[in-house]
Amino acid sequence: MGNNSADQFFSRSQRAHSRAGEVSNGQSRNRMPSSMGYLLIALFLALAVFFLLWWMLVSGGDEAPWLPAGLAASVVLLVALSAREVIMRRAWTKYLLENGIQDRSKSRSSSERGRTQKRGFSASLYASALRAIQKQSSAADSSNSPPESHFEVAQLCHDYLASTEDAMRSGSLGGEKGIAMRAGQDRVRELHKHHLLTWARGHSLTLTREAQQKARTSDKIETANKALECIDSTLRVYPDESELHESKAAILEFVASVKVAHWVELAERSAFKGHNRRAIDRYRDALFYLNQQGVKDEVRIAGTERIEREIEKLRSRIQSDSLKRQENSGRSQ
User: How far, in Å, CA of 152 to CA of 79, rounded?
Assistant: First the structure.
């Protein structure tokens, strides 16, 4: 199998393989995820919020402190229960991926029957992990899902591809199971590309809109640069995606327009105050950013013509002021 392109973007997951004891098929297993511990922690946090808020209200002289305290604790429980499905689904997916990795330290003298059972068990775990990824992928594709949900699915796809690559290289899966795993890898690669591109598109668009709403120029540029980092990180994985290049060009044009508008505004203020030479210098700064890469030709040409006209007006004004000063100087003599 070829190298997985996802390795260029995500760092390899570190998985700790704790051994709780040998099982009948010779494979170690990590502790299975349990929702009981999650619910106990959520209940503990809710009780802590209740008693803390109740104590604060009692200290403040509130006559019915249990009502707002109980309401706050209920909100904590509702949020925890709402997030339970997503958290447990991801925990189960990671568990399946971790236990699907072949134990390379197993002795070569194991019987053929034991190896066959191990292969079947691992293949079934990978199949379960694939189904879990597909389920989370469908949830992320819902209309109200945020871009971060697509990023999480892309991470799970990367973990799956990394684990299956290890299993395929070890030669522990062959025949029909190997063919099925290759088919699963192809499907997961498609999901990885889909969700990573969807995340990049949604996240960069959100950041760009946020940049447009910023008041200060520095905040606009800083937020737009974050959108560029998002696009660039995805381009390192999928460098041939034309949509990403178009998005990057649009963001670069936005950054250039912000800088040009900033220097044009400073130039206009200087001209209004009568600092004509300073205004010309600031118009030249605007021309510098206008001629940078990322600005469309029609925008560059129109902007350059406008700024050059303003510079000519200022030069004429400077010459006129100079002539007036000379005339006034001659009259005074």
Answer: 19
